[in-house]
Amino acid sequence: MDWDDLRVFLAVARAESLSGAGKRLALDPATVGRRVARLEAGAGARLFLKSPLGYALTEEGARLVPHAEAAEAALMGAEEAITGGAGAGLSGQIRLGAPDGCANYILPQVIRAICDENPGLEVQIVALPRVFNLSRREADLAIGVSRPQAGRLTVQKLTDYRLHLAAHPDYLAAAPPLRTLADLPAHRVVGYIADMIFDKELDYLTGLGAMAPAMASNSVSVQLNLLRAGAGVGVAHDFALPFAPELVRVLPEALSLTRAFWLIRHEGDAHSARLARFASGLAQGIRREVQRLEAQSQSAVAQDT
């Protein structure tokens, strides 16, 4: 089989459409369709079924995917061997998916440091409040808030992080007393839009007895800015609080949550020395940055008390 046709096959399998694959490959959809037809003719099997929803893999196509990905990984390994060994700087483009809290408050500092050390590297941070599909190559690596239980993936725990209730002093001064968690239902709560919580680890308010959030967003940064505007009380990341110094923690002894970040990679990339080096630097940087920001947040709380 021709590698270039396999490359087109993988793009269609991941995008589930000729137009989506064409955008990734800089080819027009008609050309992509002809290349798929050529591959199917050479293989003597139908690899895709076309439907109103797009192109779905047939059983034969699904069996071809891991072999095509192995060829892709081998080609990437050959390119890495030619362009430089372990002592060379990282180069090329890497796309990293992350939840928006991590993307907004942790990754800018971490990625800046990595790119300072590797001037030839281009990093794209895709900040979306949802789970990334690495099989479709939406990203080369992804950071998640829970460990995936399915898929051909390699998973590494990065670090724990902490969250507490927070609010603006002006809101607390005008609102009813908030001395225990039992007082929370009397308050205006800021949180996630319930039907847009993409991971159970983000369902912070269930079990607290609070009403549905009066002001809600699927974005961590929007929620934090609502708290900064005095909109109410809500759960905030400790690592984000240094970016909102006007906020104060509320009932920290009564409610202290711990969650974790996980680094997720496609199983087929396990032998990529380039991605392994990037992942190593990323993991170290995220651990350091979470520790630094949380220590800064804790120091600010200590000064206020």
UniProtKB/TrEMBL annotation:
InterPro entries: LysR-type_TF_proteobact-type (IPR058163), LysR_HTH_N (IPR000847), LysR_subst-bd (IPR005119), WH-like_DNA-bd_sf (IPR036388), WH_DNA-bd_sf (IPR036390)
Residue ranges of every copy of the HTH lysR-type domain listed in the record: 1-58
Cross-referenced SUPFAM superfamilies: Periplasmic binding protein-like II (SSF53850), Winged helix' DNA-binding domain (SSF46785)
Keyword line: DNA-binding, Transcription, Transcription regulation
Record has Transcription as a keyword: yes
Presence of the UniProt keyword DNA-binding in the record: yes
PANTHER family named among the record's database cross-references: HTH-TYPE TRANSCRIPTIONAL REGULATOR, TRANSCRIPTIONAL REGULATORY PROTEIN
Similarity comment: family membership: Belongs to the LysR transcriptional regulatory family.
Identification of the protein by name: LysR family transcriptional regulator
Provenance organism: Pseudotabrizicola sediminis
